[in-house]
Design a protein that fits this description.
The protein has 331 residues and is an alpha/beta fold. The chain has a domain of 218 residues: 3-Layer(aba) Sandwich (Rossmann fold). 36% of the residues lie in helices and 16% in strands. It has ten helices and 13 strands. Strands 3-2-1-4-5-6-11 form a seven-stranded parallel β-sheet, sandwiched between helices. Strands 7-10 form a two-stranded parallel ribbon. Strands 8-13 form a two-stranded parallel ribbon. It starts with 7 loop residues before the first strand and ends in an 8-residue tail after the last helix. 42% of the residues are buried.
Length: 331
């Protein structure tokens, strides 16, 4: 078992959605000897960091320079949570995604392996592509066909780690549809909960994409919606446990429809549902996942027994405790 209170922790993407939620979870456990790295850029994700405790911050470009040229400056790091990436499923600059999501991950992974450090990184359920079933992590990686370049950039490192023999010694997390506080900065990549909350507040109704597959009615597309508080709790557990090696699905294990999700937002706001179905952009129709569900037996097999919050409960917590008052985790 890895004691996260011993030695330093590096969290990349630490100002982002998952990264800042992870910092919050570590702080809840009394852990603050953390080096945070991110590309702060021009959005407002820096606000996620304000309530959180950590030892130091470094921009991601400077971190890569340290890793390649001055690794001794990072000698106290014992655990790396690599959550930094371009997470836009609509990003079309393949070269950027390769450099940012694949090559950077390779550098960090080799740094971790060379120093016997614990390495936990974010993969993605997007690597499964259009597979309409709950897929176990044991599925042959070379059989997967991601639908977009983001998913492929994540899949590329998974397969690299497998071919190089390092995968059993590190932990890759295939996060499903995570939602919750601290995603304010994500623009069009915000969760449906966040988007429809603002739509309802502004117009009194929510908008959902129409379905373009006959087996799924409008609003009947199904996703494994997973509350961010549950996601980071599972992340920390797997970092602590030596048997948490290889790839893990992180999700609720239960697919819910978009109608289920949106109705839960209306309920949390005390309003009657009012939903409009709109055309999906042509550019998205061939890349759209109609069904996702995490096969979570591997996570349970290594001893993780926390049950994820039911969808209505998770949505209520997010809407009432964070979206309505405009709060961040830790406020």
């Amino acid at each position: 078992m890895t004691d996260l209170t011993k030695g330093g922790i590096l969290v990349t993407g630490g100002a982002g959605f998952l990264g800042s939620a992870l910092l919050w979870e570590l702080n809840r456990r009394g852990i603050s000897n953390i080096l945070v790295s991110d590309f702060l850029g021009k959005d407002e994700k820096w606000k996620n960091l304000i309530p959180l405790n950590f030892r130091d911050y470094v921009e991601a470009d400077d971190l890569r320079t340290m890793l390649c040229e001055q690794p001794r400056r990072l000698s106290e790091i014992k655990v790396i949570f690599h959550l930094g990436a371009c997470s836009s499923t609509t990003e079309t600059d393949a070269s950027y995604l390769i450099r940012n999501n694949f090559e950077y991950t390779k550098v960090l992974a080799h740094f971790a392996m060379d120093g016997a450090r614990r390495f936990v990184y974010a993969s993605s359920a997007a690597t499964y592509g259009s597979v309409a079933a709950a897929m176990p992590e044991s599925v042959a990686l070379d059989s997967l066909r991601p639908l977009n370049m983001y998913g492929y950039s994540k899949h590329l490192f998974d397969t690299y780690a497998e071919r190089s023999g390092m995968l059993p010694a590190i932990t890759g997390l295939k996060y499903f549809n995570v939602f919750g506080p601290n995603e304010y900065h994500k623009g069009d990549m915000r969760s449906v909960v966040n988007k429809v909350f603002h739509q309802i507040q502004e117009t009194g109704k929510a908008r959902l994409f129409k379905s373009y597959r006959p087996e799924f009615p409008d609003g009947g597309q199904r996703r494994d919606f997973y509350y961010v508080k549950d996601a980071v709790a599972a992340t920390v557990f797997l970092a602590e446990h030596a048997d948490g090696g290889g790839l893990f699905n992180l999700g609720s294990g239960e697919p819910n429809t978009f109608l289920d999700l949106v109705n839960a937002v209306f309920e949390a706001l005390g309003r009657k549902p009012n939903i409009e179905f709109i055309d999906m952009p042509e550019s998205l129709r061939s890349k759209y996942q109609y069904f996702t569900c995490a096969h979570t037996s591997k996570l349970r097999a290594v001893g993780y027994d926390r049950q994820p919050a039911p969808l209505r409960e998770a949505v209520s917590d997010y809407v009432r405790c964070y979206l309505t008052p405009g709060k961040h985790l830790g406020d």
